[in-house]
Specification:
With about 120 residues, this protein is α+β, with helices and mostly antiparallel strands. The chain has helices spanning about 1-15, 25-55; strands at about 65, 70-80, 80-90, 90-95, 100-105. Strand 1 (about 65) and strand 2 form a beta hairpin.
Length: about 120
């Protein structure tokens, strides 16, 4: 008799109380939200950052570029963090490499909304 009571109590304990759901089932909506967040926000952001990084690393002397401030110029000197732009005869500006948003005459590589 006590064995039957024990087994029935064990079955009730494993099945949970009536009205309660499995904790794993409660985590499914949270996992879905995280997956959607990753694919909608994080993945495109990483792709955009990689594209911008590749663009900035391939800049070279002679490229005609546009800065985020709207200055058009030709690269005359390249260093790790800065570029020197010639914007007019005998007028050169040192700008941060990250200020370059694209090549002249082409669509910007760095989207103004996400800069």
């Amino acid at each position: 008799m006590s064995k039957e009571v024990f087994e029935s109590g064990l079955v009730l304990a494993l099945s949970g109380a009536p009205g309660q759901s499995n904790p794993v089932v409660q985590l499914i909506p949270f996992a879905l939200v995280l997956a959607i967040f990753y694919f909608v926000i994080l993945l495109p952001m990483r792709k955009r950052q990689k594209k911008v990084q590749e663009f900035l690393s391939t800049l070279k002397v002679g490229d005609r570029v546009i800065t985020s401030g709207g200055v058009h110029g030709t690269i005359t000197k390249v260093s790790d963090q800065t570029l020197q732009l010639q914007v007019a005869p005998n007028v050169r500006l040192d700008v941060a490499r990250s200020a370059i948003v694209g090549y002249q005459g082409q669509a910007p590589v760095v989207d103004a909304q996400h800069a």
